[in-house]
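User: Continuing from earlier, I have the next pair ready.

Assistant: Great, send them over.

User: Here they are, in order.

Assistant: Folding the first of the pair now:
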Amino acid sequence: MSAAYFTQWSGVEVDWYFDPNIKPQAVGEGSNLTLPSRLQQCVNFSPRDFDKVDGTIKTGIYKQGWGKTNTPFLHDFPSPATSIHFNALKLQDYVEDKISKNVNIKRMNVDVSNLDADFILDCSGKPKDYEDCKLSPYIPVNSVYVTQCYWDFPRFNYTLTIARPYGWVFGIPLKNRCSIGYMYNKDINTLEEVQEDVKHIFEQYNLVPSKDTNAFSFKNYKRRENLKGNIAYNGNASFFLEPLEATSFGNVDAINVQAGYHWFSGHPKDLTERRYNAVIDATENIIMLHYYAGSEFVSDFWEYAEERGRRCVENADPSLSYMIKNSKKPSGLGSYKDTFNHPDEMSIELDGLYYSWWEGSFAQNVEGLGLNCG
């Protein structure tokens, strides 16, 4: 996505290095509204290309078991906008094929410090250590168990996010399979407990689990400094936050945009770093609102998660409380710039919240999670 984005800048020659011996991961197969619009801009992606990436329409995010109201709700996208679910491996191949004539593709493993380039975007994956990163003090999940459930056709057109006693479960409907992932904390619950509990989701949605499974742990983090000399970082080399609102591609895009402005339009480093932190911190705040709201379950995990949620909201930038208090009802909303009574000079931090959630998203979730009760 970064290579595709920077081919759009006039006068920029892009060398794309990657090691073909490193197996790509089929994870992160949902997105928000940023991905389809950027794909359309950079590689002329359209709904006619859905079959090439096993794509399905994503109308929003269905949430069940969150908050204290015990009422499921849909965080839906503003009409007529939709996003997509996609096969991550096929999307990578699709984008590579589309931009292959516009970039110099070099299939090799390289040390970025030895590259002869004016500017370098390092997307080489999670850090070998986290000395240059700040770990999230709030996000309560650090592990996932994923099961692929194969079907003949998709049975719903939204992402599932279902609270469970040990964490929460995502469901991503693709053309020929549904990816079910159980997010949990390995220091509180065991993989065996998660494997047993996820059976309730298979039964609820009439899904047949396959032996195609994956389990791994992770850290939630961002870089202390995302710009170093002529190097900027993106993807997991820059950050990772759990996928509760499918914000990763939006954040990747924001980093690409800000790196471009810094390199080619003279935006100062301190401003670029502040915008980086604003977007990643806003994403973390949005994730933690769900844990702050709690769930219908009483368990060790949820006691821990709700306490983390309270601490995050208490310590967050005032923009978060401002948005919660000033969000309107979900119905009848137009552009937030026209309908939301924001301060005369929107702060970078408040703008970061808008980047991740528009006003309608705040309104739907504040109401759906029961954050406007009492």
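And the other member of the pair:
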Amino acid sequence: MGIKVLVTYGSKYGATAEVAEKIGQVLTEKGLDADVKPADDVGELSGYSAIVVGSAVYYGRWRKPAVKLLKKNEEALAALPVWLFSSGPTGEGDPVEIASGWLTPKALQPVIDHIKPRDVKLFGGMVDVEKLGSLEKTAIKKVEAPLGDFRDWDDIGAWAAGIAEALKQ
């Protein structure tokens, strides 16, 4: 039996889903069996050798489906190799610097500490004004968030390749 990896995510407008798809694609290219699913669609974790969980970040918080998945499966996740990623900050440069060192929501820190992920990664996000509601457009304008796609596909691919390498050892 090969290494089966679940890549699951919480996404609002699809940008984080695309990041998860890229991670799954790279894992598959590296010879692993990867399932990519929205967090809402995840049932049992049995049968998976490792889990990658990610979420879009809004106002310093993960999407509810990803939070529920972490909390509901905390014990199972603590027994597996887990990688976490967030996507959200916009602007040119290092996403961690843009987010002032933020990597994970403070409210999730006890769960994350228990799970002990192998790595936690923050990727740049994307803002497509056409998809935003009026309240979100107002908030974006107020904080003067840069608009556009700031996802670094090379960085995402390299991170996923690192996961594959770690799992093959």
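Worth noting for the second one:
The beta strands are 4-10, 33-38, 50-58, 61-62, 82-87, 119-123, 126-127, 148-149. Helices lie at 15-29, 64-72, 74-78, 95-98, 109-115, 134-143, 153-168.
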